[in-house]
Amino acid sequence: METLEKSLEEKKRELKEVSSRFAGGEMEEGEYVGKVKALSEEIAKIKTRIEEEGKTGHLRGAVGVRVFVKGELLGTVSEVSLDDKGPLLRISEPVGKVEEKPVAKPEERKCPKCGAKLREDAKFCVQCGTRV
C-alpha cells in the first residue's frame, strides 16, 4: 500500500509539473492535453488499486491460516482477493499429515548471579543490579 501511495504522489507531482510547463509556454496545447489525459488515467488506476487494497488489506493476515471443516483439515489459505460479492479466499490442498503440537511457553528468565526472576525486557536484575 505504501508503494501505491508513493506512486500516486509521484503522478500528482508529474501532473503539476506538466501544468507548470504548459503555463510557462514550454509545451504545446496538444502535448499538454495528451499528457494530462494519460496522467489522469494513471492516477485513477492507482486510486482504484489503493481502494481495493484497503478493502482486502485486513484479510491478508488470513494467508497461511489452516481451514478446518467439522474437525477435518480442508487446506490452507493461500491467496485473498476481492470481487463484487466480497472477499474470496483461495484454499490450497493440505500437504501431508498435520500434527497438532502445543506451543511451548518461553523459559522464564533468571539472573545469572542471584537467580531472581527477570522480566522479558529487563536489562538489569532488580535484586542484585547485575546487567543481564
How would you sum up this structure in a few lines?
It contains 2 helices and 3 strands. By secondary structure, the chain is α+β, with helices and mostly antiparallel strands.
How far is the N terminus from the C terminus? 40 Å
| Number of DSSP-assigned strands | 3
Radius of gyration: 28 Å
Average pLDDT, all residues: 82
Total individual domains: 3
Biggest sheet overview: 3 strands, antiparallel
How does the overall form come out from the CA principal axes?
A: flat
Strand order of the largest sheet: 1-2-3
Number of helices: 2
Portion in strands: 15-25%
What share of the residues lie within helices? 25-40%
Question: Structural class of the secondary elements?
Answer: alpha+beta
In terms of per-residue confidence, which ranges show pLDDT below 50 for 5 or more consecutive residues?
none
Order of helices and strands: HHEEE
